[in-house]
């Protein structure tokens, strides 16, 4: 694990034994769990859980799943109106701090200045790399490092002063354990970043010259090319399925939804894309430099797919996949 070194100051106004009143802003259930775990582990009070169906260009339907996790003792608010609804609410309840992690709306300075200790956003990439709505691109594109950043909220998305940052080298073979490790880095970034915000410690200004933008995946990018090396297939499938089960491929000319991809160490001399073994929707397929095992089902363009990987993998829960009663052709 790598941790960015931050400047220190001598602000000691905050006692870490003080119980703070925290507002969370999330739409992903996994992000909500990270936020509420931090609240519980530090003995703070969760007074408001804010979520939203998103904006026209970035709908966030998983907010409904997030709402199901909200404790009955916590007030929940669903709104897309930051200025006319959320700002007056915060002015009324006067929270100590805002913890934002996955939220489609920009928060203006007026809103962020209401809490005593301001507003902190968690972005699961090594900022200023992969700013924007799709940090899974760091895996899809094979970045040198992966990780997470806690930063103060500024006018533009993901541009505020960095309060904490955790990262490590991208593994040569990305597996479900990579998601577990990513979750650990996110948790550490939250803990350290929130502590620095509460103590009023300075952050690090981001270098915009080093910034990159993480755009949503295009339709073409959602199709896995089995002619590529195994490591590329694994990291692209991982990234797409963390984004909501988007990975697809063609096997013998038929479209399949990929639920998971696993590295196979054995070598083979078959052409890339050839089927080595198959049974009940599970294929071993030749790649450019070996083979991978794919857990699949025939792709239905009218079906809405989800994927068990995000929350299960982040929190080391057992993974389950669809089962099939017949062998696939």
- The number of distinct helices, counting runs of at least 4 residues, comes to 8
**Could you tell me the radius of gyration in angstroms?**
21 Å
Strand order of the largest sheet: 1-10-9-8-7-2-3-6
Question: Judging by the overall fold, what is the CATH architecture of the largest domain?
Answer: 3-Layer(aba) Sandwich
- Bin the helical content: 10-25%
Mean pLDDT: 90
Low-confidence stretches: 321-329
CATH superfamily of the largest domain: Formyl transferase, N-terminal domain
How far do the termini sit from each other? 44 Å
Number of strands: 16
Strand content: 15-25%
Main pleated sheet: 8 strands, mixed
Write the H/E string, N to C: EEHEEEHEHEHEHEEHEHEEEEEH
Number of domains: 2
At the third CATH level, what is the topology name of the largest domain? Rossmann fold
- The class by helix and strand makeup works out as alpha/beta
For the record, the CATH class of the largest domain is Alpha Beta
Shape: elongated
Describe this structure in words.
This protein is of the alpha/beta class. The chain folds into 2 domains: 2-210, Formyl transferase, N-terminal domain (Rossmann fold, 3-Layer(aba) Sandwich), CATH 3.40.50; 220-314, Methionyl-tRNA Fmet Formyltransferase, Chain A, domain 2. 25% of the residues lie in helices and 25% in strands. It has 8 helices and 16 strands. The protein has helices spanning 29-41, 63-67, 82-93, 109-112, 137-140, 176-199, 230-242, 309-314, and strands at residues 2-3, 21-25, 45-51, 54-55, 58-59, 75-78, 97-100, 119-123, 145-152, 162-169, 223-224, 248-251, 254-264, 275-279, 282-286, 291-298. An 8-stranded mixed sheet has the order 1-10-9-8-7-2-3-6. A 6-stranded mixed sheet has the order 11-12-13-16-15-14. Strand 2, helix 1 and strand 3 (45-51) form a beta-alpha-beta unit. It is elongated and about 65 Å long. It starts with a strand and ends in a 15-residue tail after the last helix. The model is unreliable at 321-329 (pLDDT under 50).
């Amino acid at each position: 694990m790598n941790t960015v070194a931050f400047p220190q100051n001598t602000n000691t106004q905050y006692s870490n034994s003080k119980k703070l009143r925290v507002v969370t802003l999330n739409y992903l259930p996994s992000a909500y769990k990270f936020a509420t775990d931090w609240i519980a582990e530090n003995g703070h009070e969760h007074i408001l859980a804010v979520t939203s169906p998103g904006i026209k260009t970035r709908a966030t339907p998983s907010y409904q799943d997030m709402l199901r996790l909200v404790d009955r003792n916590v007030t929940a608010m669903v709104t897309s109106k930051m200025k006319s609804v959320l700002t007056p609410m915060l002015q009324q309840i006067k929270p100590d701090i805002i913890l934002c992690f996955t939220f489609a709306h920009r928060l203006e300075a007026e809103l962020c200045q209401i809490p005593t200790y301001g507003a902190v956003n968690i972005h699961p990439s090594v900022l200023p790399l992969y700013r924007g709505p799709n940090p899974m691109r760091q895996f899809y594109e094979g970045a040198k490092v992966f990780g997470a950043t806690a930063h103060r909220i500024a006018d533009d998305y993901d541009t505020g002063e960095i309060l904490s940052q955790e990262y490590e080298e991208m593994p040569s073979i990305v597996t479900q354990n990579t998601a577990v490790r990513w979750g650990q880095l996110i948790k550490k970034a939250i803990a350290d970043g929130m502590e620095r915000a509460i103590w009023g410690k300075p952050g690090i200004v981001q270098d915009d010259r080093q910034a990159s933008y993480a755009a949503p995946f295009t339709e073409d990018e959602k199709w896995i090319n089995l002619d590529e090396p195994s490591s590329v297939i694994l990291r692209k499938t991982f990234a797409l399925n963390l984004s909501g089960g988007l990975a697809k491929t063609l096997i013998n000319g038929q479209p399949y939804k990929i639920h998971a991809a696993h590295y196979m160490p054995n070598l083979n001399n078959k052409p890339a894309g050839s089927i080595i073994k198959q049974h009940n929707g599970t294929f071993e397929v030749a790649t450019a430099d070996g083979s991978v095992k794919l857990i699949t089902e025939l792709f239905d363009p009218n079906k809405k797919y989800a994927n068990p990987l995000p929350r299960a993998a982040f929190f080391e829960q057992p993974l389950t996949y669809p089962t099939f009663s017949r062998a696939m052709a």
